[in-house]
Structure formats: structure tokens, C-alpha cells
Amino acid sequence: MTPTTIIITIAAYFAVVLLISWFTGRKSDNAGFFSGNRRQSWYVVAFAMIGSAMSGVTFVSVPGMVGVSGFGYMQMALGFIAGQLVIAFVLVPLFYRMNLVSIYGYLEERLGVSSYRTGAWFFFISKMLGASVRLYLVCISLQLMVFGPLGIPFWVNVMVTVLIVLLYTFRGGVKAVIWIDFLKTFCMLVSIILCTVFISKALGFNFREMTAAVSGSGMSRMFWFDDPDHPQFFLKQFFGGMFTLIAMTGLDQDMMQRSLACRNFKDSQKNVIVSALLQTVVIFLFLVLGVLLYMFAGRNGITETGDTLFPAVATSGLLPATVGILFVVGLVSCSFAAGGSALTALTTSFTVDILGTRDRGEEKVKSMREKVHVAMAICMGLTIIVFNFLNNTSAIDAVYKLASYTYGPILGMFAFGIMTKRRTSDRAVPFISVIAPLACLILQLNSERWFGGYKFSYELLILNALFTFIGLLAFSRKGK
């Protein structure tokens, strides 16, 4: 693919995105920005939510991981369904009953101001780092495919990327995010299905032959029950997926902001359950595509694996140009939609939770919210440039690990608030929330030596939350 073709493809996509943003933001007020005025249809939100949890990293990583872990990711996907049921029947009714704009307002009501601020700051750090990494990876791809060949420096690439994200979220807020996620889901599904069809035809398969080839490939193993020490062991993956989903969706302002935009909690529950089932189907399609990509690469001498497999095959020139265009549309839609929703959630949480909107008029809140929105975009851009300056993949891996650690204390605080009637020392919460992840880090670094070769996987999040819960319990007392 030439840079010109890529630019035209991206420009066409963003023309549609900006049109959606303008349409949804014409009469937007603060309530529209923060919660979509709670007038969004549940089925629209459900379809949008299919792709909302999938970024550009997911788009290239899930097919690429088939070579190492087969269909083992489906074990986590089953845990995701269980986690969504907890969100639908425990968290959603609670948040609607309290009429929350930011879900961390629950922590203030239940535990106190320090707990509230701690939850908001943990979310802010993890979401800023995570969203910046996702946009950094798409900026790197655009630099290689477009900006680099044209001689445009990386910082200009970052500035353009962040400016586009800022423009389409500035007025529409969560309403724009929902409809752009709707577009993202559509583009992603079209990209996955058509890429699967084109690659199957290139391999000479009809549907029945493709099914047989995938199932007999040696990469379709789905369940691991034999070795509890193995990171792919079913119970680790299932419960890790369940609690990861609860923490990173149900207790994440970015994700819950969409569900709280439904008309009532019943509609929100429908949205959560339906989107969970549909997301499982999409994950399965990604894994099937991954097997076909490895088959095609092996047959045509393409040596890339993992995250670079899908881009290498799609832009190899061995497939119709349509496949390359579909890949670019899927990657860009996933990456920019994730960046836009994160920017909106960061603005909401920082404005409502950290600066505070109580006893402020509509115009003052609007002015404050717009300044915060621009500041968050600048902060995100600077973080991306720092990642590029470090130019170190291990630094990116460390950021992802840090982001996953920050959800443990949030999960522990919500679990304590919901499952007990006790009051904890609000002043002790920030210290407990720092000590718990540090204890998990020590365990992870020494687990093989201390526990006979045991390797922690996603269950580390559960331990993180458990340590937080125990700490809160130790400093608690009876009473309202």
C-alpha cells in the first residue's frame, strides 16, 4: 500500500467520525458530555460495547497470540461473561440507584473522601498510561506507513493524532463516543470477516475446508486442565478473566460511562449481557483469523509472528489491495475510538472527582470541563512523545503491568464497600492501596523460587484486590 492510499483511507474514515461528532454535539450540555443525558438506546450501546473493549493492540495481538497459546484466550472470554453478569446484577443497579456521574462517587459515599480521591487517581494514572500506549502504537504504525515516507517528524504525527481525538470528543462527549464506538464495531467486524474470507480463498479453502483446517491445525487447543502451575491453566484464565473484566470494565469510568448512558438500569443490564455474548463471538473470529494468518504466512515465506503477523500479511502485496485497506480501517477505528473514549473518561473523572463540580453553575462547569479536556489531550500527547524518546519495548510492557496493578486496589475498595457493612479508616486507604500492589510485585518476582516453579498470571489482580480488602478490614470497625 502506498502512503497516498493510506492517507485517503484514513481521511475518509475521519470525515465520517467528525460528522458523527458534530451531529451528536450540536445541543450538548454538561450532562450530555458526562452521561449522554441518559437517553441512549440499550441496543445501540450494546453494539457499540462489542468493540469498546478492543483497541488497536487487541486488533493485532489477539490473532498473533494463536501461535503461542492457541485458542486459550477463550478461557478468559468465558470468565468475561461471568464478570459481565456481576456487573449487570450488582454494579449497574447500585450506580443507577445512586445516580452517579462518576462511578468513584460511590467510594466517597461509602468509605470517605480520601478513598474517593484514591480511586480517582488510580484510575487517572492507569487510563492515561494505557491510552497513551495504545495511541503510541498506532502513531508508530502511521509513522512507518505514512509520515516517515513523507519526511514528516514523529512529533507532528502525534500532534495530528491527538488533535483529531480532541476534535471529535470536545463537544459530543460520551454521546459521540457511543456512536463512534458503533462505527468502530461495524468497521472491525467487516474487517475481520472479509479478511478471513479473502485469506481463506487465497489458501484455496471453502467454508467446510477452512473449518477442518483450523480445527486440525494444532493451534486450536482451547482448554488447559492438566498443569495448575501453567499460566494457561483453566481456573487461572477463567477467574483471572472474570475479575479482570469486573475491574477493567465495571470499575472503569471509561467503560461504565457508556452503560450509564442508557435510559434506566434495566436497559443497561440488557446492554451489558448482550454485548458480553457478542464480544465472545468476535474474540472467536479473531482467533480463527489468527490460524489462517499463520497458515498463509507459512505458505508464502512470511516470517513475522505475534503482533507483527497481521500487518505483515495484510500489506504483503500477496492479497488483494482490499485486505490492506480493511486492515488500516480496522486498526485506525479501534485505536482512535479507544483513545477518544479514554480522553472523555479522563476529562469526566478529573473534572467531577478531582476538581469537583458541586455548587458550580452550568457555565462554570462547562468552562472547567473544556480546559480539562484540552489539558488531558496535551498530557496524552506528551506521554506518547516520552514513550518514543525511550524507544524501549520493555518500558511499554512495564506500563501495561503498572496499569493492571492499579485496578487491584479499586476492586478491593469496591468489594469491601459492597460486601461488608463495616467502616474503615479513610485516612489509611491511600497507604493500603499502595502497599497491596507492592506486595503483589514481590510475590510475582519470587513466585517460582518460593512456590516450586509457580508462575502468576491474571490471578495476580485477585490477590491485589484481596490484600487491599484485608487491609481495609484490619483498619475497620462496626457502625454506619
Can you describe what's shown?
The protein is an all-alpha fold and 480 residues long. The protein is 76% helix and 1% strand. It contains 20 helices and 2 strands. A two-stranded antiparallel ribbon has the order 1-2. The mean pLDDT is 80.
Features:
single chain, 480 residues, mainly alpha, two-stranded antiparallel sheet
What spatial form do the alpha-carbon principal axes imply? globular
- Order of SSEs, N→C? HHHHHHHHHHHHHHHHHHEHHE
User: Number of helical runs?
Assistant: 20
Structural class: mainly alpha
Largest sheet: 2 strands, antiparallel
The side-by-side strand order for the widest beta sheet comes to 1-2
Helix content range = over 70%
Instruction: List how many beta strands DSSP finds.
Output: 2
Assembly state: single chain
Mean pLDDT across every amino acid position: 80
Uncertain residue ranges: none
In whole angstroms, the N-to-C terminal distance is 64 Å
Radius of gyration: 22 Å
Percent of residues in β-strands? under 5%
